[in-house]
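idk why but the lab printer keeps eating my pages so im just putting this in chat instead. protein + adenosine-5'-triphosphate:
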Amino acid sequence: MQRTYISETKAGETQKIQGFIDKIRDQKTMQFIVVRDTTGKIQVTVVKSEQPEIAEIFTGLNVNSVVTIEGKVVENPAVKAGGKEILPTSVVVESAAEVSPIDDSTAIDMRLDYRWIDLRDEKKSLIFKIQTCCAKALRNFLLERKFVEIHTPKIIAAASESGADVFELKYFDRKAYLAQSPQFYKQMAMAAGLERIFECAPVFRAEQSYTSRHATEFTGFDIEFSYIDSFEDVMKLEEELLTYMLKCVKEEYGEVIAKEFGKEVIVPTTPFPRMKLKDVYQELEDRYDYIVDDIEKGDLTTEAEKLVYRLAQEKYNSEFMFVTDYDAKQRAFYHMRKDGVPQGYDLIWRGVEITTGAQREHRYEILKEQAEEKGLKKDVEFYLEFFKYGCPPHGGFGIGLDRITMLLLDIPTIKEAMFIFRGPNRLLP
Ligand code: ATP
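predcted complex ->
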């Protein structure tokens, strides 16, 4: 008999279901077993006196065991979940589970040790269905606009790029590194004339960060495109892209997100507000008495990011804010500058940076100078070559997929917004 998904079971038919045992209620004369698959749950009801062999199977079984059950599906309004139940004619135990070492009250780090059990919780698996919806929307939006999906190498020869720390690895008899972003290769694709590309892939950062929003490996959704006039074109594409993504998520999961995560999905209006960094600091001081030392004003502090959310809401009725005009010292050498000002931005959503974007410097001589100014020479030689033989003006941005999932669902830590978390102290499972 073919398997039927639990959500598709029909009263009146004999069907086969497969899944995990979610609950077992073993009473004197009856057993009520709840079985769960990826689509939902159904009650399996056993009258002990009528089916002693089946009752015996369930008596010795723990929750989390995996079973295949055939039986008649019948309507029963008394069953809270779904109003139907299955009366089994055959039960096969595919995998008998030991008692689970974790439950809802277990601390996060121990739950992560047993992540595969932790994820059986419906709300947790829902996170990845919603993340899939986000990635699908991002992808569809770009594919419709003739973007090409590329796959760049993650094992690379040169260590330096944006200054973030890289993981070193042994590559036969020499050293290699794990890519801290696909930046160089995205730009190589522009020099290759691909014009519009994106990639969704792992990004590695050897940072000892113990915040709620940093991981040492995360998924980056990266975009690069040619023939732009300025970084305004980059911001425009990004705001349209994110608006489309949130529209798709709201349509498919808006109600579920409100119910399960208590968060409203707000589809923004475009354009998103834009503010220069120095004006942001001025407003934060004027409005919220937030004062920082001048030396910190070249970048946005974590506290300022949080206040930017408040400012964006109060001043512009928006959850988003593009912050522009950072100090060149704080930005990567490949950002184009105009009168010394980097032609790029960070996008802040709900108080956290989700993107860095920019127009890139495509003119070989200037790019070389900017690299040298940051003390980069040997490591970027191969990259500089990309710009010697003709390269269109271009720009792009990178979105942290795990971060937007965390913010979208108001999950307190990125550890739970990614399938498997990697941090300075975590390499397992
Ligand atoms: P941050 O200042 O938060 O450390 P960053 O400036 O190093 O981030 P970028 O190099 O611009 O980040 O990376 C692009 C995007 O990737 C970020 O906006 C963010 O959404 C995501 N991201 C960056 N670092 C991490 C990380 N360690 N863990 C998870 N996501 C990250």
